[in-house]
Every structure is written in structure tokens, then in C-alpha cells.
Amino acid sequence: MASIAANLAKDRSKTLGVGTNKNPVKYLNQDYEELRAQCLASGILFEDPKFPACQSSLGVNDLGPNSEKVQGLVWKRPSEINPNPQFINEGVNRADVRQGSLGDCWFLCSIASLTLNEVCLYRVVPVDQSFTKSYAGIFHFKFWQYGEWVDVVVDDRLPTKKGKLVFVKSTAGNEFWSALLEKSYAKLNGSYEALKGGQSLEALEDFTGGVGEFYYCKSAPENIFQIIQKALRARSLLASSTKSDTGVGEIVVSTNVVKNHAYSLTGAEEVAYRGGTVQIVRVRNPWGYKEWNGAWSDNAPEWNEIDPKVKAELNFKCDDGETWMPISSFLVEFYRVDICHLNLDTVCCDDKHKWCLTEFKGNWTAGCTAGGRKSNPTFWTNPQFRITLEDLDDDHTGDTDAPCCTVVVSLMQKERRKKKPQGEELFSIGYYIYKIPNQTSTEFQTGKDFFKKNKEVAGLDTYKNHREVSNRFQLPAGKYLIVPTTYNSSQEADFCLRVFTEAKAESLEFGNVVDVNLYEPLANSAPDTENQNAFEDQKEEKDEFNVEELKNVLNKRLLQRPDVKSNGFTLRTCREMVNLLDVDNTGTLSNGELNILWMKLENYMKIFLEVDTNLTGTIDAHEMRNALLKAGFNLNNRIQEVILQRFVSKELSIHFEDFIACMMRLETLLKMFHLLDTDKSGSISLSVSEWLCAGMI
Fold first, then answer.
1. pTM over 0.85
2. Which of 7, 85, 95, 480 lies at a C-alpha separation of 20 to 30 Å from 306?
């Protein structure tokens, strides 16, 4: 119940502008300004209780308490490491980032790329922080997380050994912005160990909120150099990675390239050479040393044959981990190129456009919305989202039935990195796109029949175990259904689905509309003909029935239904029944109310038996959606998930009594709402007293 309220509050705060970079969400409810003011007033340096300087912040396995890597480790503040600590020393640049003993080169090369774009850099790293003015041992950084910006607070106690930083460090020994940035990202992901291993694209997106695209070097398009150069000129952030065929672990080969390692991609130039031109790219090793030693490296002879001005501008001879290399060698030595687009013009076309973002948030829940890949019988239960493409691309001409609307679809699974130290990995994820026929209703979740009759028009070629999968498509104008999925069913995760279009796309989450049309018997109504004789034989002599008496009567009647497998109703379920029909608040039901109740129960028994096709006395959690529809409840995914949390068993099934209790509870809540919604506006306002009275039912 508390988590539901928290999510509702979060949704409402976002409508008020919370979650932008200027007004970020306060991570773990820690307010930087308030905490700093408290520390300054007390004269005590900040110690972060949410990410303390202790073992839990390091990790559980590779950095666990028994690991040699943490033996002798001491947490120290910068003033204990250097007598003159600086947050930023003579500006920020990519040389400020040198990798330590933590295997997070993917993150550190992303920081180096971030330094190439000052606008993005200072969104992430607020520069009004120092070790002198208003210093209180507290710092903060901002990250984009699945559709919103969060502000992460940390204290400045850093892991050291023998007085030196263990993890990331700056070339300047008294500069600490990069080490504190790494600590705040570790906090965001649960521990330092959680940062071990990853794709650079993940951090690049967390620094910017941009959309990712990547190319494998072996199958890169012929114009890959132009793609890289154009993205760099658009101030997009780029990284690249290497891969070894011989095994895991970082390996330095004869060319001085480190395999199984991530690099920043910081430059792309075409230079005149021997009467022609050569395309070269600049890569940076986050170690701060070990550079490519082939053609166009720092001391290569090629530099002696080009214009001295060009040489002076491009070639800096120092062992700083950064060097130039030909694009042809780059494609051989490297495995993948990651591009984080800040301006989608670099993704889709050469012309300038203003791209529009449509964003959905959802989750895959076992038994409800985790339907798995298309071949699974439960595929239809996956979350469904509609977009309407009406306006053609500005540069489109010709037949309107031809592909004419550019769409970039990005799917991200959330918070999986936090669970990595516990052995949990990223799920393989993907999505399908379907064209919606004009006559199809777009208010409610589409069922099995839709997917039997319709084939996807677009999607991803393969499922990938990445945090984000994305692709661009060109589609005719019309209505489309996007179905995000995990490869296997019952895999639970939250996700963020982003759709970028040139023109604003109308959007809707399928199944987000609530519609109810219930069976309502009257007191003098007769039951179904097939059960009429049994009903006549079961008239009760009492005028009023309390919960205990109701339980005895209903279970006596239930024995006459051998087709329903049940151990009988409990007092809990009978209380739900009384709550529904006890309008005069006596805590009892009259004979007439009992008759109405039994007719309701007969209706629900019929529905349950229709869905319980194998006669086990239970229904599969995925089939609960169909049962609710038959009962007249067309509910959104959020309500479906709450129902499953309350009534489903660990085997992802629902027993008969729980099904009945659920129906009674839903009817009661709906009845209460309609009674309180006196002006029929579709919303109600309650005082604390009224809310508590209603909630205790």
C-alpha cells in the first residue's frame, strides 16, 4: 500500500516540474542545501548515513570483506590525502580522469568524453563547490535516470591505501572532482562493486539523457568515419571498446591496445597526406598511459609528412593515454563504437529538425505483464503503448503510403546494475511494433486474437542483454502498437520506453482506461434456470446473518456445487461480502441481501469455471485479466498488478476463494467511489478522517 502511494506521489510531482535538471529529484530524500547548512551550523563535517564509509558501500564479492582488494583500505577526506585539495584545479579536462583498481573503465572513459562538452559537464558537475568556501565535507552531482534527473549527495571520504586513492584519480594529485563523481555514481548504483564492467553508453546517457546508438566495427557502414566525425561536431559523446578472443581480463597486445577495455573517442579528422587524404581518429585510454604504437601514433613518422601547422594542432607527444590512429586500424583493433546523441539530427538525417520525445514508464510483473517473447502464449499480456504518426517528415515527398515518418524507439531496463553484486544480470530485452487497423479499439489492452491476426511491421532483429536497446525506423503515417518485452516470461523489471519523432506523436498506454460494467441482480430476481431448484431449497429462515452465520450458510450452499473445487469461504472473505452489501452499517446481511449475494457468487462461479479450463480449482495469473473482463472489469495494468500482489500465490495462480474475495473487494471500492463522487466528476477529495474510515473497510 505504501509503495503504491509513493508511486502516485512521484507521478504527481513530475507534473509539477520535479525531475528536470534545474529541479532534480533529491535522491534518497537528501537535500544538499539543507544538509550543508546543518553541517556548517554545527561545525561537524558531513558523514553520509545512506552511503557510509564502510564495507557495505564497497561491495559483497569482488570488493567483499574477504577480498584482498579491500585489505588495508582506509577512508580519508581529501585534506588527509593532500594538504591543498581542490575540487577543480585549473579547469576540467579529460586528463583529470585516470583509472584506479576498480574495473569501471567504461564509466571513466565516459567521464573523459563528458569533459569535451562543457554544457553537459556542468549539468552533471556543479562547479560552485570547493574545499574552502562553505566547505562542510558534502558534495553533490546530477544524473539522468530513466526520464528524470536526480541530485546525489555524498560525503568526501574516499577509499585509500597507503595514503593514495584506490579508485579514480586526477593527473593533478590535489584535484578530486572525478573521484567524488565516481563515488556519487557508485552510490546511485548501490556500491563501488556494482560499477565493475559495463557499456560506456550507459554512463553517457546518465550524464545527458541522450539517446544511444552503437556500431560493431566488423560490420560498420562504409561511412562510419563520417558518422563519428559528425557526431563529435554535434557535441555528442562517444566511446569505443575492444574485445579479446582469448578470454576475459584486460590484455595489452603488441600494438599497445588494451583488449577487453573501454576508451574515449575524442576526435576525428581528415588530413592531407602524400597527395591524398587520410582519415584518423583519436582515442583515449582511461588508464592515462598505454597508447597505440602504430601509424599516426605520437611518434609515428607520418606526422613528419603533413603540414606543420596541422601537426602542431593535432599531435601532442606525451604518454597520456591519448593518441591518433587510422580509421582502418581502428576498425581492426576495436570492437564497438558507442554514440550518445544529444541532438537527434545526428541520428536520422542531414537536415536540421526539432525532435519530439514521447516517454512511457512501465514494468514487467510475473503473472501479469511479463509475457515474454512473441512465441510465448502469454505474449499478449505484455505492456502495450500506442503512438499515432500523422505528420510526414519535412523532407518527404510522394505517396503518403510510403515510409514517411522517422521514429527512434529506445527501450531501457531500470535498476539492474544495483543487483549485479548479488549475481543478477541484465535481461535480454526487445520490442515489436504493430500497425493498428483503423477499426481496432485503442482504449483497452489488445488480446490474443489481435496478435494472431496481425504481424509486426518493425522491431529489433535480436534480443540483447543491454540496459538499452534502440533503433530507428521509417513508417507510414498511422496508428502503431509498441510491445516491449523480455525474452523469457515472468522476468520482473521496470522499464523506460522513449519514442523520438520529428513531429509530435499522439501517445497512449493501452489498458490505461478503467471501465466497469457489472452484473447487478435485483432482490426479487430469480437465479439462472439451471440452479433455480437448488436455490429454492436453500432459502434461509433467519432475517439477519452476521459474518460467522454467513460463512456457515454459504459453505453449506457451496457443498451443493461439486463442480467448484473449494475448501469453503473463510471469515476474511465473508467480511468482504458483508462490506459490499451492508449499506446500513449493521455488520449483518438481511435475507434479501443474502439472495443478491448468492446470485453474484453464482455469476462469479460461472466465470471462474470458464477460465479454469483444466478444473484444478485455480486460474493462472495471466488469465486473471480475462476473468476480470468477463466479470465486467476492464482495468489498467497498475490495478492488475496490485490485484496480483494481494491475491496471487507464489505459484502464480489464484484460488477460487481469493478470486471471490478480489471480486468482492473491487465491487466494494467501486461502490464507495460512486457514492462519494457526488458531482460525478470522476474524482473525489477526502479529509484524513474520511480517508481512514474508507481505508479501514
1. no
2. 95
Q: Considering the chain, what is the average pLDDT of its residues?
A: 86
Known active-site residue 109: no
The C-alpha atoms of residue 693 and residue 697 are separated, in whole angstroms, by: 7
Q: What count of other Cβ atoms lies within 10 Å of the Cβ of residue 666?
A: 21
Same domain, 303 and 248: yes
Is 120 part of the annotated catalytic residue set?
A: no
Q: What is the CATH number of the domain that holds 563?
A: 1.10.238.10
Query: What does residue 28 show for φ and ψ, rounded to 5 degrees?
Result: 55, 25
The per-residue DSSP string of 312-368 comes to HHH---S-SSEEEEEHHHHHHH--EEEEEESSTHHHH-SS----EEEEEEEEE-TTT
Direct distance between the N- and C-terminal alpha carbons of the chain, in angstroms, rounded to an integer: 14
Catalytic annotation, pick one of 285, 531, 579, 595: 285
pLDDT at residue 529 above 50?
Answer: no
Indicate the Cα dihedral angle 72, 95, 102, 79, nearest 10°: 30
Q: How far, in Å, CA of 662 to CA of 511, rounded?
A: 19
Residue of 140, 261, 341, 655 marked catalytic: 261
For residue 676, the SS3 value is: helix
* pLDDT value, residue 283: 95
Same domain, 376 and 444: yes
As a 3-state breakdown, the chain gives helix, strand, coil percent values, each rounded to 5, of 35, 20, 45
| Residue 261 is a catalytic residue | yes
Lowest mean pLDDT among 125-139, 326-340, 588-602, 676-690: 676-690
- Quote the DSSP letter at residue 6: H
Tell me how far apart the alpha carbons of residues 177 and 169 are, in angstroms, rounded to a whole number.
Answer: 9
Check whether residue 161 and residue 224 sit in a common domain. no
> For 372-393, what is the mean pLDDT?
88
Q: What is the DSSP string of 437-497?
A: PTTS-SSS---HHHHHH---SEE-SS-B-SSEEEEEEEE-SEEEEEEEEESSTT--EEEEE
Indicate if 439 and 539 belong to the same structural domain: no
Q: Choosing from 105, 348, 404, 496, which is the catalytic residue?
A: 105
From the number of C-beta atoms within 10 Å of its C-beta (0-12, 13-18, 19+), residue 406 rates as: buried
The rounded distance, in Å, linking the Cα atoms of 656 and 619 is 8
Our measurement of the distance from residue 530's CA atom to the centroid of its chain's CA atoms, rounded to an integer in Å, reads 51
Domain of residue 441 covers 354-511
**What does the pLDDT look like over 16-70, one tens digit per residue?**
668 888 999 999 999 999 999 999 999 999 999 999 999 999 999 889 999 988 8
